[in-house]
């Protein structure tokens, strides 16, 4: 892996282009901050430099702060490992520096990357650049001035929404909001940014320090109303998450006492949150989720996933229709098999209703919905199974029925076809016992509603081939799931965890504890609903 570094090139036009290099996403490692400070100070002192452009290497600005540093802090409880970026670099050296700076952003501009861009005096973006502050999803808050500068550029309601949800926006929307000064084609990005920086230096454009702006904040009473509503929503949607309310408190500090005080409070609260149990847990989840894509003796032996273009689903009930919805939305052709025309019609209509629901909620465009409708077909027999790449059985939890289905599909499907079951608990060795193709038998356990829930539990037996596992993992990623490969036993991983949870609740109820009290305790602990509800 290339060593993280910062480079600087000074052109004949007097613009210093400072680039951080840390592929693949230019994560802001400690040495990047040290390099930025060094190059910025050099540019400030050089007489041949009139202005600065900040950009990232390889078509990406930055994916944000290097999260490995959080892991080190969690292991040592030493917050001094965190660099002083907010006051020392972004505010003192960049924003309050004597030479104007323009951020040229492309691809990704997230977290600490966006905060560096906010510290510049203008931001030029390539089309469809992602802009966001997702720090709350890691149990912390934006720690380099983001809580103060973003509301001053785009207004309080939208800034709060971006931070509370951790969801990015595109540069086109950013331009409308005032976060981005101009969106230009990628090949013109540096040229426009250089000229913009010179225009500021020569007073043809305004020299804007984000932290000093107040025009988008509104009156104090309006700001208090917005914050009051945000706190009310957070108490419902992010129960037991300290970072959300802490972030709102820090935003309020800056509005009431000024941006500089807000930045100082932000830095202190950031250090407190980094050491919280919530941050430790969410950083663990972040790395664990990424580790799921690495499976020993499957992903590291040189195999390539085979294309899966057509999938047959046996059973068009709640799970079958949900799985079908997920597949057609990702351009995979689906055949749904049912036992009679009435059930088949109901299954197809459920898929269509799922897709229409996404259109109604503006999560899917109508033309993409129309394409999805055309990708599903209903059948009552196995005659169309001769060219499918995968079959997913999604019938009721009945062992003889599942065994018979696997005997039938082995006869009619091509020899490369993956034979998958959506069983939630039954041992796959039992389901595939009467088939001879044991290497193609695998579990594909979706969760209800299958087109919404992100987890896909992939169950391997001792005989499942590495190729079948890799293919199903690839399908999972294509349909935007998080595929987690687990071993085969009754209940697999998820339900083996769930069984004792549900049983404990039932034991308590049998001992006479009020079921409403049990549910209330679980909700207070942080789960969305209790076991009885």
From TrEMBL:
The organism's place on the tree of life at top rank: Eukaryota
Chain ranges of the 3-hydroxyacyl-CoA dehydrogenase NAD binding domain: 310-488
Pathway in which this enzyme or protein is active: Lipid metabolism; fatty acid beta-oxidation
Protein keywords: Fatty acid metabolism, Isomerase, Lipid metabolism, Lyase, Multifunctional enzyme, NAD, Oxidoreductase, Peroxisome
Keyword Cell membrane included in the entry's annotation: no
Localization annotation: Peroxisome
Gene Ontology MF terms: 3-hydroxybutyryl-CoA epimerase activity; delta(3)-delta(2)-enoyl-CoA isomerase activity; enoyl-CoA hydratase activity; NAD+ binding; oxidoreductase activity, acting on the CH-OH group of donors, NAD or NADP as acceptor
Reaction(s) catalysed by this chain's protein: a (3E)-enoyl-CoA = a 4-saturated (2E)-enoyl-CoA; a 4-saturated-(3S)-3-hydroxyacyl-CoA = a (3E)-enoyl-CoA + H2O; (3S)-3-hydroxybutanoyl-CoA = (3R)-3-hydroxybutanoyl-CoA; a (3Z)-enoyl-CoA = a 4-saturated (2E)-enoyl-CoA
InterPro entries the UniProt entry points to: 3-OHacyl-CoA_DH_NAD-bd (IPR006176), 3HC_DH_C (IPR006108), 6-PGluconate_DH-like_C_sf (IPR008927), ClpP/crotonase-like_dom_sf (IPR029045), Enoyl-CoA_hyd/isom_CS (IPR018376), Enoyl-CoA_hydra/iso (IPR001753), NAD(P)-bd_dom_sf (IPR036291)
Any one GO cellular component localisation term in the record: peroxisome
Gene Ontology biological process terms from the UniProt entry: fatty acid beta-oxidation
Any one Pfam family match given in the protein's UniProt record, by short name: 3HCDH_N
Domain annotation 3-hydroxyacyl-CoA dehydrogenase C-terminal: ranges: 491-533
Quaternary data: Monomer.
Family that this chain belongs to: Belongs to the enoyl-CoA hydratase/isomerase family.
Identification of the protein by name: 3-hydroxyacyl-CoA dehyrogenase
Organism annotation: Solanum tuberosum (Potato)
């Amino acid at each position: 892996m290339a060593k993280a570094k910062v480079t600087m090139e000074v052109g004949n036009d007097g613009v210093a282009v400072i680039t951080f290099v840390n592929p693949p996403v230019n994560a802001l490692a400690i040495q990047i901050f040290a390099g930025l400070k060094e190059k910025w100070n050099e540019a400030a002192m050089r007489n041949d430099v009139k202005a600065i452009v900040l950009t990232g290497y390889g078509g990406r600005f930055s994916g944000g702060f290097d999260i490995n540093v959080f892991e080190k802090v969690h292991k040592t409880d030493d917050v001094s490992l965190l660099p002083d970026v907010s006051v020392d670099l972004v505010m003192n050296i960049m924003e309050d520096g004597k030479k104007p700076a323009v951020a040229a952003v492309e691809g990704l501009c997230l977290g600490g990357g966006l905060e560096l861009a906010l510290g510049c005096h203008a931001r030029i973006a390539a089309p469809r650049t992602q802009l966001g502050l997702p720090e709350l999803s890691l149990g912390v808050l934006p720690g380099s001035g983001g809580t103060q500068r973003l509301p001053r550029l785009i207004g309080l309601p939208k800034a709060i929404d971006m931070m509370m949800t951790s969801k990015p926006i595109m540069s086109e929307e950013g331009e409308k909001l005032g976060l981005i000064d101009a969106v230009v084609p990628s090949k013109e990005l540096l040229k426009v940014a250089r000229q913009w920086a010179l225009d500021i230096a020569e007073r043809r454009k305004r020299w804007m320090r984000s932290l000093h702006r107040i025009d988008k904040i509104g009156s104090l009473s309006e700001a208090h109303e917005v914050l009051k509503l945000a706190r009310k929503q957070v108490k419902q949607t992010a129960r037991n998450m300290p970072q959300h309310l802490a972030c709102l408190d820090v935003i309020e500090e800056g509005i009431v006492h000024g941006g500089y005080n807000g930045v100082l409070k932000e830095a202190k609260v950031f250090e407190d949150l980094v050491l919280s149990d919530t941050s430790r847990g969410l950083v663990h989840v972040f790395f664990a989720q990424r580790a799921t894509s690495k499976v020993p003796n499957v992903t590291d032996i040189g195999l390539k996933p085979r294309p899966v273009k057509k999938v047959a689903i046996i059973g068009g009930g709640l799970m079958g229709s949900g799985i079908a919805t997920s597949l057609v939305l990702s351009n995979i052709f689906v055949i749904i098999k049912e036992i009679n025309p009435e059930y088949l019609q109901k299954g197809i209509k459920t898929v269509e209703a799922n897709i229409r629901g996404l259109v109604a909620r503006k999560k899917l465009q109508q033309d993409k919905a129309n394409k999805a409708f055309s990708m599903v077909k209903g059948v009552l027999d196995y005659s169309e199974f001769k060219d499918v790449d995968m079959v997913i059985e999604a019938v009721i939890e009945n062992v003889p029925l599942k065994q018979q289905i696997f005997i039938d599909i082995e006869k009619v499907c091509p020899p490369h076809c993956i034979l998958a079951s959506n069983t939630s608990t039954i041992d796959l060795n039992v389901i595939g016992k009467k088939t001879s193709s044991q290497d193609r038998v695998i579990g594909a356990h979706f969760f209800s509603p299958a087109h919404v829930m992100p987890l896909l539990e992939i169950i391997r037996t001792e005989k499942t081939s590495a190729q079948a596992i890799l293919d199903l993992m690839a399908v999972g990623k294509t349909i935007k799931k998080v595929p987690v490969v687990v071993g085969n036993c009754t209940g697999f991983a998820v339900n083996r965890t769930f069984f004792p949870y549900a049983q404990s609740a039932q034991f308590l109820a049998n001992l006479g504890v009020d079921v409403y009290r049990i549910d209330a305790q679980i909700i207070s602990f942080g789960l969305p609903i209790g076991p009885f509800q």
